[in-house]
Every structure is written in structure tokens, then in C-alpha cells.
Amino acid sequence: MRTETTPTPAIPRTRGYYRAEVLIVLGLSLGQSAVYAVVDLLEKATRAPLASQTTKLNPVLDQREIFDLIYQLLGIFFALVPVALALFLLAASGRPAGQSVFRRLGFDFARPGLDFGLGLALAVVMGAGTLGVYAAGRALGITTAIVPAALDTYWWTLPVLVLSALRHAVVEEVIVVGYLFERLARFGWGNWTVILASALVRGSYHLYQGIGPGIGNFLMGLVFGYAYTRTRRVMPLVVAHAFLDIAGFVGYALFGPAIGLGR
Predict the structure, then answer these.
(1) CA nearest 220: which of 258, 185, 147, 169?
(2) Domain range list for the chain
(3) What pLDDT shows up at residue 45?
(4) Which residue blocks in the chain are alpha helix, DSSP H?
(5) Residue 223, class by beta-carbon neighbours within 10 Å (0-12 exposed, 13-18 middle, 19+ buried)?
(6) Which of 93, 106, 148, 262 could form a disulfide with 252 if both were Cys (CB 3.0 to 4.6 A apart)?
């Protein structure tokens, strides 16, 4: 005997739906990082002066080399899963005929000249600004000493640091810019409101490094958000972010301890 089932109606994509979707994506990625960063900042601030403390990026995850490498690669891989989720949700919500979600966000290689030219320019400007904000934060006592690369020295250290930099660039720019700009626009928010919200998220998940990096990354978010509204391309931001992090991570691993950086 055949039985017929009634198709389950699709969930209406209302503002409430998109609000829940944004909270879920952020809760699995940078929003979660922001909550931990705020708690970490409070813990550090109530333990000792921020200026006397050190924040280590890319730390050792296991004392045995092979397992440290495995954990490093697993961490990079699983950090990219929320990016895949965000892209999947954007693709599922509809797009112009024949246009992929990658093309829609400008997360492709269709315009290499613009992407690498603008990306390099942004990296230079933001790099100088980052050093200035870091120095000011250390002088004011609101920024911890930052060690960008705390890995032990192995044959795979530099490649893993490059992969880590690329991971950060892709996760942050695709989610906090590409995805959020698409979704917050569904709430009827104007460009500058979206730029401000995106920049606040960016600044918040860097607060574990101190108040200075939170402010610096908020300002970086304003610049990156404005650049995105002008180009509608995420790739220049990914390029700029990758340049900044590769320079910081690899540069510190090669020269930092010798010249006393991070103190």
C-alpha cells in the first residue's frame, strides 16, 4: 500500500530567519571568539597590569613534533568549516542566474590586478597603522606583549605559519565582511551601519591581546568595510590580511627573538 507524504514547507526567509542564521554562523566562528576574547581580557586585567603580560599566537599544541603538526593542521582545517557553512548558506539563499557565490562576493581570481594591487596597498597602510597602535598601546599599558609565532622550530614551522595566516585571512574576511555585509543588508541597514557593525565584531575578537589591538582592528574594520563597499570584492581584503599576518608570523619566527620583538 502506497502512502503519500506531504512535502515540508520551506522555512520563510524573514528577518527573524536571517537574524537566527547570523547568530548561528557567528556562534560557530568569530562571535564565539569575541566572547572568549572579552572574558580573556577581563581575566588578564584582573590578574595583573596588561603591560606586564604576554599573548602568544600560534602556540605549541603538543610537545611531540608529529602530534604538534597534526594538531596545527587540524586546527587550520576545522577553522575553515564555518567559512564553508557561510558560503553554503549564501548560495542557498539565491543568486543571479549563472553567478556563483564566489563571484558574488568577489572571492575569486577574476580581477588579479585589482585584488593584489589594492591588497598590497591596504597591507602597507594597515601594517604601518598596526605598528603605531601597538606601540601606543604598549606605552599606555593597555596592550599585552604579543608573540606572533610561539611554535618550536621544525622543518614545517614556516609553512604552517603561512597556512595559519591564510586561514585567518579567509575566515575573517569571508565571514566578517562578505557574509555579514550580505546578511545585515537584509535587515535594511545602510552601508555605514553595516561597516560599523562589522568593524565592532572585528575589534571584539582581538580584545584578548589587549584594548589597543581591539581599537586597532576596529579601525582596520572600518577601512576594509569601506573598501568592500567600493569594490564588492572580498579577495583584496584576503590578500591584504594574508600579507599582514605572513609578515607578522614568519617575520617574527625568523627575526623577532633576535631583535627583541614582542617584549
Answers:
(1) 169
(2) 41-93+107-255
(3) 95
(4) 15-27, 30-45, 65-79, 81-92, 101-105, 112-140, 157-173, 180-185, 191-204, 211-231, 235-259
(5) middle
(6) 148
Q: How far apart are CA 227 and CA 220, in angstroms?
A: 11
Asked whether the CA dihedral 28, 215, 45, 253 is positive or negative, the reply is positive
Q: What single DSSP character describes residue 174?
A: I
Residues belonging to the chain: 263
Half-sphere exposure of residue 189, counting CA atoms within 13 Å on the CB side?
18
- Confidence label for 263 from pLDDT (cuts 50, 70 and 90): very low
Contact 43, 210 (CB under 8 A): no
Render pLDDT for 57-97 as a digit per residue (tens, 0 to 9): 999 999 999 999 999 999 999 999 999 999 999 999 876 65
pLDDT for 132 equals 95
Closest CA to 237 of 193, 190, 176: 176
Whole-model pTM: value is 0.92
* Cβ atoms < 10 Å from Cβ of 242: 20
Apex 43 CA angle, 37 and 44, nearest 5 = 90
C-alpha 176/C-alpha 26 separation (Å) is 9
Q: Which residue has the cell 594574508?
A: 242
